[in-house]
Write a structure and sequence with these properties.
alpha+beta, Hypothetical Protein Pfu-838710-001, 8-stranded antiparallel barrel, globular
Length: about 180
């Protein structure tokens, strides 16, 4: 599927409190909690990251997805081209990407639960990561702002950074050498 992804992240300080706000705002679980392993691939020498692009292989339960993300336009929200498709075999996809010259780089893990509300095209995901809990609001800009307000989120709390960037900030704050964002 090809399209334009528009999203923001927010740091969630109270997991239970945020889930309660989602329920009160009319959101229901669309996809139950699943473990995800995401591997970002890059060429050698690097050509994707310097141009603001990425290629990712996501393993989410028994669903495997390859994603290309184009350069981001960042303002209050982050928007970028996204081309995504599912594959039936993660190992074959991994090998396929390597044969095309892409090398595995940064790996990040999370547990993700996806929420939606009836009649809406937007989604809210609740991501439990090794560096904290984050929610992503993805949809049209007006929907994001309306939903954020309904959930008690100020636009000053919007984050447009990737999980890779959030991880590097966390490592710097904690005085840890960066590696992969994995659960111990």
């Amino acid at each position: 599927m090809k399209g334009l992804e528009t999203e923001i992240k927010i740091e969630v300080l109270s997991f239970r409190g945020f889930r309660k706000r989602l329920k009160e705002a009319g959101f229901r679980i669309k996809h139950r909690r699943v473990f995800e392993r995401n591997t970002i691939f890059e060429t050698s020498p690097p050509t994707l990251r310097p141009s603001g692009c990425l290629v990712r292989l996501r393993e989410a339960g028994s669903k495997f997805t390859i994603t290309y993300k184009g350069p981001a336009t960042v303002g209050k929200h982050k928007s970028r081209e996204e081309v995504e498709f599912t594959v039936s075999d993660a190992d074959a996809a991994y090998t396929f990407l390597m044969r095309l010259g892409y090398l595995p780089g940064f790996v990040y893990e999370k547990y993700r639960t996806e929420y939606s509300e009836i009649g809406s095209n937007g989604v809210v995901t609740l991501d439990e990561t090794p560096i904290g809990i984050y929610a992503e609001l993805e949809g049209e800009e007006n929907w994001i702002d309306f939903t954020a307000k309904a959930l008690g989120i100020a636009d000053t709390d919007y984050l447009t950074a990737s999980y890779g960037a959030l991880y590097l900030r966390w490592c710097e704050r904690e005085g840890i050498d960066p590696g992969h964002m994995r659960f111990a």
